[in-house]
From TrEMBL:
Identification of the protein by name: histidine kinase
Organism (species): Cellulomonas soli
Residues spanning the membrane: 24-47, 171-190
Keywords: Kinase, Membrane, Phosphoprotein, Transferase, Transmembrane, Transmembrane helix, Two-component regulatory system
PANTHER family (alphabetical): SENSOR HISTIDINE KINASE TRCS, SENSOR HISTIDINE KINASE YKOH
Length: 474
């Protein structure tokens, strides 16, 4: 075994392998045993103290009565005491050396029952003595001093505690029996309560085991208790919904990617097969165009894969967004034959300048594909955020499609007719890049009713903020 191993002890490992119900019941039973045991012990001690105090008070009262009787005839204490009633107690008169001068009572001991020979007259000392007399029983003692003819004598009264001891024993046995019955009842009750409480969890576990695929329509039943278990069931259903959506999106993604790849691959295959058979010669521009289309598609897929892995921002830093917008506007002005309107605002954001340029390029390319007229690139400051609008003369995206248009491989019907070669991933990449920069990508219509796509990003605060690290950018 290696030094410093974190393996649990055998007992702890066995405890963790037990079911939750068993652990809860055993822990509750152990706690109840401790509590009930402590309660019985406390009761026994308290009862014993009460009965001992009562016996000591009785011994003291009887001793005071005997002292009063002796005071009537101080010349012969022993003779006076012999005529007195001891009422089931033991009375002893001792001389100054501890010798027994008088011992009365049916359990009278031959020897002295106390060694307290220094108690002054008029003072009573109470104590408990055990294992005295033939029966070796405990006694409650009351001791006082007497003076007879100049000699010091000691008078004591001993009240036997056998009745009290028996009462304590019976009370403890009775209470312990009741505590045992109560323990059994409580443990059974706790076991049933825990079983009833965990029954929904068992049902949820069984239902989840029956769900063998992500697209299964089955869901776990939510108990009507409104407690943590109900919350667990709701959370489990939400997780299953997310898994179903993710699986459906993955299947749709694979199907759409296969569809997009099939067309250029078929064109390339046709070119190769016809050229090999000698029917035609290889059309270089066609092959080159299809290869570029494949490369763009693969690059877009890799970009989205990095976005899914939260690794889209390779070099985040403070970026002058107006410089990025101006550079894209200059490029567009050289290739776009239509009208172009640009409005810049000084704005700095934290992020990756290359990715922001890619997002803006995709928005511009989308505008070029869907209009033959004017294009506008407008920056708008809005508090601590900046909006980059790309407007075109095409009709706005219908309201019901303004969220779906940013999904992968989604192209609206009109776009499928007028599309000039887009893969259907450009707007998804825009949304992923905006999200990686803590921003958003939306679509709607501008004040003049034209189609508008907007990327919104948070501005760098006026006070210099520390640059983002790749982990912080995620």
């Amino acid at each position: 075994m290696s030094i410093g191993s974190d393996d649990p002890a055998p007992g702890a490992a066995r405890w963790t392998r037990w079911s939750l119900r068993r652990r809860v019941v055993l822990a509750a039973a152990a706690a109840l045993v401790v509590l009930l045991g402590a309660g019985v012990a406390t009761f026994a001690i308290a009862l014993d103290r009460i009965l001992l105090s009562s016996a000591q008070d009785a011994a003291r009262s009887q001793l005071e009565q005997l002292v009063g009787v002796v005071s009537l005839d101080p010349q012969d204490p022993a003779g006076t005491l012999e005529r007195a009633s001891v009422e089931g107690s033991v009375v002893q008169l001792l001389d100054s050396h501890g010798s027994v001068l008088l011992s009365l009572g049916h359990d009278a001991a031959d020897g002295p029952m106390t060694d307290r020979l220094d108690v002054p007259s008029g003072t009573v000392v109470q104590e408990q003595a055990g294992a005295i007399g033939p029966e070796q029983d405990p006694y409650a003692l009351a001791v006082t001093g007497l003076v007879h003819g100049g000699d010091r004598q000691t008078l004591l009264v001993a009240v036997p505690l056998d009745v009290e001891s028996m009462a304590v024993t019976r009370a403890v046995v009775t209470l312990a029996s009741g505590a045992l019955v109560l323990l059994v009842v409580l443990v059974v009750g706790i076991d049933r309560t825990v079983h009833r409480a965990l029954r929904p969890v068992t049902r949820i576990t069984a239902q989840v085991r029956e769900i063998s695929r992500a697209l299964s329509p089955h869901r776990v039943s939510v108990p009507p208790t409104g407690d943590e278990i109900a919350e667990l069931a709701v959370t489990m259903n939400a997780m299953l919904d997310r898994l179903a959506r993710a699986d459906a999106a993955s299947r749709r993604f694979v199907a759409d990617a296969s569809h997009e790849l099939r067309s250029p691959l078929a064109t390339l295959r046709l070119q190769v097969e016809t050229s090999t058979s000698g029917a035609t010669t290889l059309d270089g521009p066609v092959v080159h165009g299809e290869l570029l289309r494949l490369q763009r598609l693969v690059d877009d897929l890799l970009t989205l894969a990095r976005a899914d892995d939260e690794g889209l921002l390779a070099l985040p830093r403070e970026v002058d967004l107006d410089d990025v917008v101006e550079a894209e506007a200059r490029r567009l002005a050289q290739v776009w034959p239509g009208a172009l309107h640009v409005h810049l605002e000084p704005a700095s954001v934290h992020g990756d300048a290359v990715r922001l340029g890619q997002a803006l390029r995709n928005l511009v390319d989308n505008a070029c594909r869907h209009t033959g007229g004017a294009i506008a690139i407008l920056m708008q400051l809005d508090g601590d955020r900046v909006h980059v609008h790309v407007d075109n003369d095409g009709p706005p995206v219908p309201a019901e499609d303004r969220t779906r248009v940013f999904d992968r491989f989604v192209r609206l019907d009109e776009a499928r007719v007028r599309d000039a070669g887009g893969s259907g991933l450009g707007l998804s990449i825009v949304e992923a890049i905006a999200r990686a920069h803590a921003g958003t990508a939306t679509t709607g219509q501008g004040p003049d009713g034209r189609c508008r796509f907007t990327m919104t990003l948070p501005l760098v605060p006026v006070a210099a903020a520390p640059p983002l690290t790749p982990s912080a950018a995620r």
